[in-house]
Here is the input.
Amino acid sequence: MTKDMIRRRFLAFMIDMIIAYGGMIALWCFGPGGSPEHLMYPTVKFWMTGAYWLGYLWLYAYGIFKDCLCGRRSLGKLCMGLWIIDTQSQAKVSYKQLILRNITFFIVQVECVVVLILRGKRLGDMVAKTKVVDLNL
Here is the structure.
């Protein structure tokens, strides 16, 4: 994997994380029962609000289904010109593969170790038999 590809994948990841966590914080601040004050002074009362649970629901839902948006790629990948393909057929991946690919991301510690050892190949890519490629290729 080239340095340019690693940089673009990292930037795509950062864009997706900004969307995921930005949405969660927005729901915490402006969702039902939420308030920006809760970010500064969290209380047990806040944990019982709809805003708290909707924020986490958004975070996990976006994390799992982000690649099912924008023509089977995340908004970050769209911005960086990246595409996900099946490693065997070199064709578009199925939605099942995309969801399977992203579910493994929630095992963060294992995912980080695999990425470091395999130089950019995610555990989710191996399980779902996918790879991220440049759209222009």
